[in-house]
Amino acid sequence: MAYRALLRVLLFSAALTLAAHAEDRYELEPIRYSDSVPDNPVERLATELQQGAESLAVDARFGYLPAILERLGVPVSSQVLVFSKTSLQRQSISPVNPRAIYFNDDVYVGTVPGGEYIELSAADPELGAVFYSMPLRGEGSPVITRETHTCLQCHATSMTNDLPGHVMRSVFTDAGGQPILKAGSGVTTQTTPFGERWGGWYVTGRHGAARHRGNTIAVETETDAELDIEAGANVVLLEDRITIDRYLAPGSDIVALMVLAHQTEMHNRFTQAEYAARMALHDQQVMDGLLGRSGDTLSASTRRRIDTAAEKVAEYMLFMGEPELEAPVSGTSGFAEEFEQAGPRDSQGRSLRDLDLTTRLFKFPLSYLVYSPQFAGLPDEMKSVVFRKLWDSLSGAVPSALTPEQRRAIVEIVRDTLPELPPYWKI
Fold first, then answer.
1. CB 370 within 8 Å of CB 351
2. 45 falls within a domain
3. Which residues, 6+ apart, have CB-to-CB distance to 407 below 8 Å?
4. 3-state secondary structure 332-398
5. Can you tell me the distance from the alpha carbon of 126 to that of 242, in angstroms, rounded to the nearest whole number?
């Protein structure tokens, strides 16, 4: 009997491997990405529009864009501009006609002047990044359409750990907006060195002696590409580069770009943790059935899979590996002020959204997305491990780069502002 049970396990494992190769694992049980009904702000708005319970005003210049931003609570001050042809509307994008992206904690909105539609995505608690499109202009209630394969060609690759995710790329871009791929590219996150960020993006703001790859056109060489990074430094106005009145805001704020670099990868790590836990629990359920186990406890394999993903979430939430700023940073819009005002504050008036911008991004380095629906929606088996790892770092049980004062302040803020905490956080 033991032999037969082992044989069944081996056959199951082989079948699972073949299925994963034949079709992306996230399209199989238990995720079923494309077949599942999302639950996020964009999906809810799409349903309301379809049912006639909601309508959107049409602006003479910007179509539905101002209305969709207002309806989804996305601030205009979050506008950032990317001029590399690295998105679905690439034909309309160029250094003189960049794509505008706006965002809040859960939603991203993209549009290109002269384009035909608005691109939307949301951080869905169960599915991760979910993508949509809607017409830029029209009459009556627009239709918001969910996009799967079209967007996943770029948004479910090695850049997102082969799962549906958001990507902030830094590329060497020529005068037409084409990426010079032989020069290389990278994903910009909070751990990316400042000097490697924002190739193909406009960046408005002050950053002293620090340098980045934004605001500059690359010159292709025989084997590589060259950038004049000095020409792109400390730019505060874009009037000589683009037609400003084609956009809702005049700039591409450096503080918004820094927050976006944190947020996109944080959302991706939540997605990876969500999928890892659900897949591990599903696989154990199947194994338990094959082996006649009760399933009352997690197997060693399931615990390992959950622990590995939880570690990646916790370290990113605590900004481990974030490089120190070489000089203070300041933006050109009201984004920093709006962003700070949006979050909960503790009894001493402190918030995880308080910006530093002198030596690092945040004063109290624990991700403000700890309040997000995506984090709250993590399976209990995953969230409990993440909370334990965060506590181990913040309590001093394991080594941390944070000072005792930072750790103490973060714990006090979280205790005051996050009701659903494990008991040991409240001691």
1. no
2. no
3. 393, 394, 395, 396, 400
4. CCCHHHHHHHCCCCCCCCCCCCCECCCCCCECCCCCHHHHCHHHHCCCHHHHHHHHHHHHHHHCCCC
5. 39
Tokens 């999906």 map to which residue?
Answer: 43
Q: How far apart are CA 198 and CA 249, in angstroms?
A: 19
Give the single-character DSSP code of 189. -
Residue 194 lies in a domain: no
Using DSSP, state whether 88 is helix, strand or coil: coil
User: pLDDT tens digits for 236-250?
Assistant: 999 999 999 999 999
Q: Which amino acid type is present at position 22?
A: A
- Sorted by sequence, the CB contacts under 8 Å of residue 296 that are 6+ apart come out as none
Stretches where the chain sits below pLDDT 50 are: 1-22
321 CB-near residues (< 8 Å, 6+ apart): 190, 191, 315
Q: Has residue 156 been placed in a domain?
A: no
The domain of 333 spans 266-426
Task: Report if residue 159 sits inside a domain.
Answer: no
Residue 366 in contact with residue 414, Cβ under 8 Å?
yes
Please answer whether residues 194 and 212 qualify as being in contact, where contact means their C-beta atoms are separated by less than 8 angstroms: yes
φ and ψ at residue 82, rounded to 5 degrees: -120, 130
Between strands 80-82 and 201-202, the pairing is antiparallel
Number of domains, the chain: 1
The whole-angstrom distance between residue 260's C-alpha and the CA centroid of its chain comes to 7
